[in-house]
Amino acid sequence: MLTQQQLKQQAADAALDYIDPFVGPDVVIGVGTGSTADLFIDGLVRFKGRVRGAVASSERSAARLAAHGITVLDLNDVADMPVYVDGADEIDPALNMVKGGGGALTREKIVASVAKRFVCIADESKLVDRLGAFPLPVEVIPMAREALARRLAALGGQPVWRQGFVTDNGNIILDVAGLTIKDPAAFEAEVNNIPGVVTCGLFARAGADVALLATQGGIRRLD
Ligand code: 5RP
């Protein structure tokens, strides 16, 4: 029986195999944030010197890449990336995701939007029939915190301020439990449209293109 950590390693290794054909001297890889993404970053060492570098979705991932001697590029200096690789807190069979457990959702969404393909890596526990059991992270401008908590409660959720946490962008996170998310793309747009929301952790309008899910029986690929 593989542990969750071993499953995460398996997913990270599968992503390294996935990106192998894209590797080249002008290529930039988009890199996510979290414990699974960390394992992917560690494995990226094998491509060091064979790619132009990586764009990180958080200060944490940038530091880990740099510690491995992998060139970290500013997104402003990168026009395209073949792939963005990141974990998820939940993913459904249509490849909609909830992300942001690590609080990096906004930069993750930005970097992913520049990449051609979003490759989601996770252990199979992240696969759900319907999103919403994991509280939805919402990055919020601090002055809007209470106003937004009321708006999110009116949408049926129970928002909780992630106390003591400041995002890389200087904002805060509300984690919204108890939501019934029937139409992820519509709900993403609705939440993102509320003044004071930077972005919510639903990745549905642009979900994953490929999911590499580690199971006890090997990698399960969803396209
Ligand atoms: C960070 C994220 C992560 O991808 C998500 O929280 C999954 O993390 P992990 O790989 O540690 O389970 O969205 O903001």
TrEMBL record:
What are the alphabetically sorted keywords of the record? Isomerase
Which EC main class describes this enzyme? isomerase
A GO molecular function for this record? ribose-5-phosphate isomerase activity
Entries under InterPro entries matching the protein: NagB/RpiA_transferase-like, Ribose5P_isomerase_typA_subgr, Ribose5P_isomerase_type_A
Recorded GO CC terms? cytosol
Tagged with keyword Transcription: no
Gene3D superfamilies reported in the protein's UniProt record: 3.30.70.260, 3.40.50.1360
Q: Please name the catalytic residues of this protein.
A: 108 (proton acceptor)
Catalyzed reactions: aldehydo-D-ribose 5-phosphate = D-ribulose 5-phosphate
Residues bound to substrate: 33-36, 86-89, 99-102, 126
> What pathway does this protein act in?
Carbohydrate degradation; pentose phosphate pathway; D-ribose 5-phosphate from D-ribulose 5-phosphate (non-oxidative stage): step 1/1
| GO annotation (BP), single | D-ribose metabolic process
One Pfam family linked to the record: Rib_5-P_isom_A
For this UniProt entry, which segments traverse the membrane?
A: none
Q: What is its EC number?
A: 5.3.1.6
Q: Which NCBIfam families match?
A: PRK00702.1 (NF001924), rpiA (TIGR00021)
The record's note on quaternary structure and interaction partners says:
Homodimer.
UniProt lists the family membership as follows:
Belongs to the ribose 5-phosphate isomerase family.
Output the HAMAP family linked to this UniProt entry. Answer: Rib_5P_isom_A
Q: PANTHER family, from UniProt?
A: RIBOSE-5-PHOSPHATE ISOMERASE
In UniProt terms, what function does this protein have?
Catalyzes the reversible conversion of ribose-5-phosphate to ribulose 5-phosphate.
Protein name, per record: Ribose-5-phosphate isomerase A
Q: Which organism is it from?
A: Orrella dioscoreae
